[in-house]
């Protein structure tokens, strides 16, 4: 599991790694530059005019090494040196010396920054990295403003966009990258939605520092990747019957909002549930039966909203429950929900309106168990815990909530963050902006409920569910882009199993 460590720990990490491997810091920088170039070659053509903007620290050193390697590969490269000659780090200096004579390198004066015209297709930002310790000013600020305003260029940040602190929210200006190629592990601040316009697409380039070195700086934050989920999947034998794959119950829906629970149910079936049943208000029975023949449906007493009384006998036959999508927040839905949560003690995914109802109730602890998973998006989350100043605070509050209530909290969005009561947080690496479409969250509810029902255990169910939901979204959007809708994500779930190589 890839650790997300603090930027401040990286110097010590480098020193330990270098000492144990018996290599120089220059070699490590060369590895980083090579990893960047391997990625770059897959993206850009040799005819592209590449401007590499280098500062005076090790980020600048990376940029210089990248420039030298790309130039040798035949790219049309120009180096721009920003920030003057003061405080040039040793490896940056060495890489300045290693620049081939024929590779153009221009020292940018303040006047050049103000007046120079650039004719570039690709701008590579290696001005400042994780060593940034104050808001940008002077030449760096002016250069960043100028580069951000260049039309028709691709902007790539080396390690982290210049100006962005690695663990805090941005104050002031920063380089606006289309892609950030970050070394070894994604920096914490790259996970914040406030920084979306600066980070662009995130690519993590492995520079060979093993987890053994990272672990000593662990902050209990992890980046969830494919290799972390494949082994968490259960194997089912050739003799498995539908009971082995779990019986799940999806509870929700209201008059005019029946699609949400239907999508959750279909997603659970596509994720592998043996049997899916829906509990809805009576107006939903015909709709669901007609639109999803694979499921069973029963209803609570009233027509438009879930309500008391409902049939409680036999609820224990369900291995897991997903509750909330489309259920509304009426008083009758509230009575129903609170009663249901007290009645069904098995694992549950609590989503959407079920969260909104809990948010207006005091003492919600009594309704939540250790196998329960809350899946709020940011607005739903803030209804639970109050308005947050920024995403960093939201992430802190998510962890506090999970610890205080002993349940799992899935804060949805780009890089969905999963908080566990043991104090760990996992940031998802899959998914894309095309999943920002109504119903995508209902699909996630169905998927996690399905894994819970299949007997995955809460941790594996949530990690597999969140990762695979994002993967299904990526697969669905390959040929649909912003035309992707939630049912496309459901249709892509089988392909996500194929991609993962899970039978
Ligand atoms: N293990 C890793 O992650 C590796 C990191 N490397 C690179 O090293 C970088 C970090 O290098 P450094 O620690 O030298 O830091 P930087 O290259 O980010 O720059 C630090 C220098 O900039 C100054 N500075 C900070 N904020 C400033 C501001 N707002 N305006 C002007 N100057 C400012 C600092 O006083 C210091 O002199 C990483 O981002 C990465 O690119 C790689 O070379 C190799 C391995
Ligand atoms: N930009 C994005 N990148 C990655 N995943 C996203 C993005 N936007 C939305 N998603 C995912 O799509 C889902 C949306 O859920 P939600 O907001 O609850 O939708 P709804 O309420 O319409 O079902 C979440 O799982 C979220 O992580
Ligand atoms: K940078």
TrEMBL record:
This is Bifunctional NAD(P)H-hydrate repair enzyme. Residues 10-215 form the YjeF N-terminal domain. Residues 225-500 form the YjeF C-terminal domain. GO terms for molecular function: ADP-dependent NAD(P)H-hydrate dehydratase activity; ATP binding; metal ion binding; NAD(P)HX epimerase activity. It comes from Echinicola soli. (6S)-NADPHX binds at residues 58-62, 129-135, 159, 260, 326, 377, 442. GO terms for biological process: metabolite repair; nicotinamide nucleotide metabolic process. HAMAP family: NADHX_dehydratase, NADHX_epimerase. InterPro entries: Carbohydrate_kinase_pred_CS, CARKD, Nnr, Ribokinase-like, YjeF_N_dom, YjeF_N_dom_sf. K(+) binds at residues 59, 125, 162. Its cofactor is Mg(2+); K(+). AMP binds at residues 412-416, 441. Homotetramer. In the C-terminal section; belongs to the NnrD/CARKD family. The lineage of its organism: Bacteria, Pseudomonadati, Bacteroidota, Cytophagia, Cytophagales. Its EC number is 4.2.1.136, 5.1.99.6. Keywords: ATP-binding, Isomerase, Lyase, Metal-binding, Multifunctional enzyme, NAD, NADP, Nucleotide-binding, Potassium. The gene is nnrE. It catalyses: (6R)-NADPHX = (6S)-NADPHX; (6S)-NADPHX + ADP = AMP + phosphate + NADPH + H(+); (6S)-NADHX + ADP = AMP + phosphate + NADH + H(+); (6R)-NADHX = (6S)-NADHX. Catalyzes the epimerization of the S- and R-forms of NAD(P)HX, a damaged form of NAD(P)H that is a result of enzymatic or heat-dependent hydration. This is a prerequisite for the S-specific NAD(P)H-hydrate dehydratase to allow the repair of both epimers of NAD(P)HX. It holds the Pfam family YjeF_N. Binds 1 potassium ion per subunit. NCBIfam families: yjeF_cterm (TIGR00196), yjeF_nterm (TIGR00197). The keyword NADP applies.
